[in-house]
Amino acid sequence: MSGGFDLRDEPWIPVRLASDEALRLGLRDVFKRAHEISDLELPVAPAAAGLLRILAAITSRIGREGDVALGDARVGEHIEDWLALRRQVLGRGKFDPEAVDQYFDKEVPAGRFDLFDDERPFLQDPRLVAECVGPKGDANPSGVNKLVFGRPTGVNGAILFGHFTDTAPVPVPPAEATWHLIAQLYFGPSGQCTPRRITDHRMGSTDAAPLRKTLSYFAWAPELFTTLVLAVPSPDVEADWEATDACPWEENLNSPLGPTTPLTWPGRLLTGQFRHAVLLVPSADRRTVTDAYITWATHEQAPATRDPYLILDRRKDGDFQPREADGSRALWRDLDSLLLKTNRRDAQRPPILEALPKGLGPTLRVHAYGFEQDGQQKDSIWFQSTTPPVLQWQEEGDPAMARHIKRCHEAAEDTGDRLDFAAKVAWKIAADATTDTSPKARIRLDARKPGPWASAAVNRYWPAAEDEFWRLATPERIGTDVTRPFVEAALTALDEAIGQVSQADIRVARARSRARGILLGLLRQTRAS
Predict the structure, then answer these.
(1) Close Cβ partners of 377 (under 8 Å, ≥ 6 residues apart)
(2) Element of type H or E holding 470
(3) Could you tell me how many helices (H) and strands (E) the chain has, helices first?
(4) 18-62 per-position pLDDT tens digit
């Protein structure tokens, strides 16, 4: 029995229409109805980050004007020609249904979008059945719990989101299995994995997936059609222009022991850098996934490339690395890195946000998907967030507003850092009777004993700081004092963290007074500058 869940037409992608109706669609209808869709609603953020890259790659094939598509190398060699083509595609307002059917039914070989196809299941490697075996040649799958992010695996796996065990695994519906398949390929761990034997080679370790612990940013339009067209990266990338570009479902399987396929634009740039190989095991009726193989795909060095959806931050050694996802950090704290030009010293804007059409600026928001992880096995939390329509304030179009946003963010960050320090000083004064509390005395902090006030104050401060930021983030507030509102929010957070103090708590009263003075010093610095 072959096939059974064709992703072209099976309803597996949750979307919300402009009419506010929520439903699930297959790939074909996502593209045919993209102009009616206002949002994607995948509950697994890392799967959404990967899916958008897959959809952008497909958009580069079907987004066309005449016989020229956005992903054609013949137009990609000249950026101005490509930008002109993108304007023409956007001007159509929707994807051509015939181009959609042509791609899914004729340009891609049959079965390549079927989750359970025997020969080439979507984004999977059918060779794993024969290559992931034990010493005696028996099947050695990884388990369905290993596939699904959030489920515990192994004897000591922590139970976080449900009571799942390796001895009694719960099958997964095909739609959800597809989400986690995509998430594994883009965000999977490094380190030990199910061994894979090829000829005399039997190795059981893998490299981290290309997006592990990162945060992706997309220009988000009122409807998905425009969002997807803007998600196609410009051809201004380092790629092999002589090699034929292909996505995994468009070409034959590569040899795991062979050299890395040349990096090409845009298909391999978006979908061709996986370090993991996966194979889903369906139930007899092909309506659930009961097991999975997850192992290494290659040990060749990954090509050096810039992912178009990531912010790069400068490290201490001078090189740049992707900004890591932090579940405690709100999206507004990244805004200046998204609005200011990429010639900054310490941060570089995602290339996908360069050269956006000026006419769309007032409608474009930023949507971010992040997955807080370490570099190996630990997964902490995934999240997603959307800004108001802020891309109209990019430095190219509104330099005054972009710099105002930067000032607001810097004031918020400086105040947050000062609050953390002030609360630790206050705890030191209150808890250590030997501390010299005279005004000019230098108080030495113990990093191992920060006390409870700092975390309590900072946790109260940042939500209040976000409210102040958005009140300040208007053209009318350009040139006004942006420090005082954040300092006042920090003072309130400090008082709430310390709590009520009676007259008998003289050391606590002194501690609070000292901490408030440290915060108010920011206002004096602002006036002096």
Answers:
(1) 189, 190, 191
(2) helix 453-472
(3) 15, 15
(4) 999 999 999 999 999 999 999 999 999 999 999 999 999 999 999
Q: Are 261 and 242 in contact (CB under 8 A)?
A: no
Q: Position 195: which residue type?
A: P
Q: Position 520: which residue type?
A: L
Interhelix angle 506-528/399-431, rounded to 10 degrees, is 150
User: Taking the complete model, does pTM exceed 0.90, yes or no?
Assistant: yes
Residues 354, 341: Cα–Cα separation, whole Å? 8
Strands across the sheet with 22-25, in order? Answer: 22-25, 13-17, 37-40
Strands, E, within 340-420: which ranges?
347-348, 365-373, 379-386
**Which amino acid is located at 149 in the chain?**
F
Q: Are 211 and 182 in contact (CB under 8 A)?
A: no
Concatenate the DSSP letters of all residues of 139-202 into one string. B----HHHHSTTS--STT---SSS--BTTBPPPB-HHHHHHHHHHHHHHPPPEEEEEEEETTEE
Q: Which two tokens stand for residue 72?
A: 């054609």
What's the rounded Cα separation, in Å, for the pair 477 and 404? 8
Structure token pair of residue 42: 């995948």
Q: Which of 247, 227, 238 is nearest to 71 (CA)?
A: 247
Rounded Cα distance between 409 and 400, Å, is 14
Which residue type occupies 26?
Answer: G
Contact yes or no for 420/441 (Cβ under 8 A)? no
Name, in order, each residue with C-beta under 8 angstroms of 378's C-beta and a sequence gap of 6 or more: none
| 37-40 and 276-282 beta bridge pairing | unpaired
Name the strand (E) or helix (H) holding 89: helix 79-92
- CA 189, 194, 198, 203: dihedral to nearest 10 degrees? 70
Token reading at 356: 């956006």
Name the band, by pLDDT with cuts 50, 70 and 90, for residue 377.
Answer: confident
Round to whole Å and give the CA distance between 272 and 270.
6
Burial label, 192 (beta-carbon count in 10 A; 0-12, 13-18, 19+): exposed
- What pLDDT does residue 156 have? 41
**Nearest alpha-carbon partner for 450 in 419, 428, 417, 418:** 428
